[in-house]
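User: These chains co-purify. Model them together.
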Amino acid sequence: MKKAIKISVNGTTHETEVEPRLLLVHYLRDVLGLTGTHVGCETSLCGACTVRLDGQAVKSCTMFAVQADGSEVTTIEGLAGEGGSLHPVQQGFWERHGLQCGYCTPGMIMAAAQLLERNSTPTREEIRHGLEGNLCRCTGYQHIVEAVEYAATKAVNREP
Amino acid sequence: MARYVGQRVKRTEDPRLIKGLAHYVDDIRLPDTLHVAFVRSIYAHARVGGVDAGEALKAPGVVAVFTGKDVSEKVGPVPCASALPELKVPDHRVLATDKVYFVGHPIAAVVATDAYAARDAAELLMVDYEELPAIVDPEEAAAGGGAVIHEQFGSNVAYKLTAGEGDIEAALASADRRIKQRITNQRLAPVAMEPRGVLARYLPGEQELTLWSSTQIPHLMRTQVALMIGIPENKLRVITPEVGGGFGSKLNVYAEEALLGWISMQLGRPAKWIETRRENMQATIHGRGQVGEIEVGCREDGTLTGLRYNVVADLGAYHQLLTPAIPTLTGLMLSGSYKIPAIQINVTGVFTNKMATDAYRGAGRPEATYVVERAIDLVAAELGLDPVAVRRRNFPAPEEFPFKTATGLFYDSGNYEGALATALENAGYERLREEQRAARDEGRIIGIGVSTYVEICALGPSQAMPAGGWESATVRIEPTGTVTVLTGASPHGQGQETSFAQLAADELGVDLNDVTVVHGDTAIVQYGIGTFGSRATAVGGTAVFIAIERLKEKALKIAAHMLGTDAGNVAFAEGTFSLKEAKKAAAAAGDGKAAADSDEVPEPVVPVGEGPAGALPEPETEGRKRVTIQDVALAAHLARELPPDTEPGLSATYFFEPKNFTFPFGTHICVVEIDRETGEVKLRRYVAVDDCGRVINPLLVDGQVQGGIVQSIGQALYEEVVYDGQGQLVTGTLMDYAVPRASVLPWFELDRTETPTDVNPLGVKGVGEAGTIGATPAIVNAVVDALSPFGVRHLDMPIKPEMVWRIINGSGL
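Assistant: Joint model of the two components:
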């Protein structure tokens, strides 16, 4: 039995009827075609599926779409600013080689964006702890830490 | 002059990835696609009495169910490319028939209209199992006496192999000291963040099958899958879209890849299977899995006389593509970076009721490096010498290269002392030792570990490879002046779209953004081998480089014709062909500005919007003293005024066959501190000096080294594939299998030395596996060093806190 839900995703409101067991990540990927959010483990451990739900970074592989009814969701596709300008975290990942295969990257960027909103001048240790819920198998994380530092510096410089 | 090569150029592939707009297999959507879910064995070893698909077939959305009986006569066996003498090769069908051999062994494929329906129906399939005793412990498999997994072979031994040179018995017998140590390399799971996945689309009219697969080897896979399912190779197209990490786990041909293609051909609709993480832990290859004993002989001064490694290799239930070959790579690298007159490896490869082991980042070489670097530290401990001194005593000097080992290799070039000295200085080694002494006086437990590794890369000469060791490239300049590079290497995160573009842009004198590197599509790219064994740049990059040289030779001929002179009068620099006289005259005039003007690259000719639609502009050649390479490209395509005997078009293809492997090396130094209360090992510092020859992009090299070190840290301290006594996979999810997280890692202090190689004209050695090969023993050596006051000489990986805590608290110290 399908249930009607209304979710705002990246600023656009979608009204859809979904199976109650449909995972949020599958709703985003399969119903809306937003395939930038990835599935890496199905057990909330790797963080590849991280999106923002009403501002909170959540793992969309272990939450049902119906639980997001009435919420605002931001995915990696919705992170860039006006005219496609990169978010400071996206820019940091590019500048500091914060990705290799790129599979963990959207989730990692979404988690890092929340981290910087909570703490605009994190130490390296705070960045590492802030990203504990996201696994990367390629980079060894050091360039990711540098990418977040870059974003922090840039954001601070832009908004004095 | 290099504008790009050697620079920290940020990657051209990144924008699509950081915006979430890239396409991995599961991101490709085709209308009418069917979804496949596999029913996999829940037992490690069992007879299958029957499979009842009745209920599953009645479930909503189900289109078909295929079992082993349905496909075993129609789809050929999963291939093994290793050819070893007297190797036992079991018949590896894509679905199990009468027996299952490991947990996760596929039994049936359920095909439905959506992925949820397919999984629901898979639950309804009834499999009649009769459980059999499982063989889990490789040493038990080698010893015999228990169950025989593949009954036709009479035992669980798949092969035995002895290799090495020198009189090992004499070398050990004449040594002042002989040291033996049992040593293991535990099974690891590669855990690429993107699990495997396949999308197959058969077009019945065209009789063409396209497979999108997350693989490292599109061309090799095409050949093998074509043979398996009986489709002409030129009717099968393999596309590797974005690949979310491989580390060797996708250097394979898997049952699911062939089966998905076959299913799509049967049903005439696209079919997709995306591996779950649990399936990935069960049924994607594992790495390592060696249990052995080393015996090393040395003189009182630390000079090594001989090394023997008796090892049982845990191959798993079946051979995947390279399974039996991996331990042979271990044997090749047992000389490490040392002069060892006699070396012997005795391998017993055994079947166990587990997933196959195969190439995981380093593939046999991390095992060798671990064995050798542990052996050096055991010698140092035995003799009471500094581990650094023992290493230095046994290094070949730079002038001894090419250096022949007792394993039959010729190391191309090296300066091991150079990398060691740099690392010792960067780490402040002497000071670290003083700090260690002081810390011990305070009751703190600190250890320093050193590893001076060498690795075998740029795989490799075809004589040493199962399916060709060359790599291919096509470089062409399009009529509008943009450059297309087609590489047979199939990068999946390493960044060759950028590094190859750097190379092409410099060699052709064009802008980086005018170069597009295309890979991973067998319908577009000429046959290639793939990305593995740290080969993409050293072998594939060289193919690109030589193809460009060829292309420039042709362009020079055309340019000379356009300039109305002989090729000998024309020089090429920064994208422009010019008359040598004109250049000389400008230089003779001594006018720096004029010279600069003459070197200026004119705007490329872009025909868009000029002239009537469809017409290309005429290159103006009259009275010109120079033409750009873009002008030449246009002229080559218009083909109205080409020199005699010159083909139209401007492209060149080259297949590069390397004459040898390359041997990158380096020194890694690790400092650990152990928490007395918890036994936790904390990485305090990590200093690495790597020498991978000439570097095209230092940013990418740093990334490769850092990622590799962290996978090593995983092996040393956290990761282990665990099967219980019945062969159940205990570490079946990321809940149980501990991939390192950002918070447990130190800041890596990286540096490089640069010793070029003459194996290829680029002087590039390769760096993809260096971190994984060099780091593991540095970490273990550090922990053993820390615990040496407690009488510890060796520890098995992963070194878990409990093990360390018991040592500290059981010691009475």
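Chain B touches chain A through 56 residues (CB under 8 Å).
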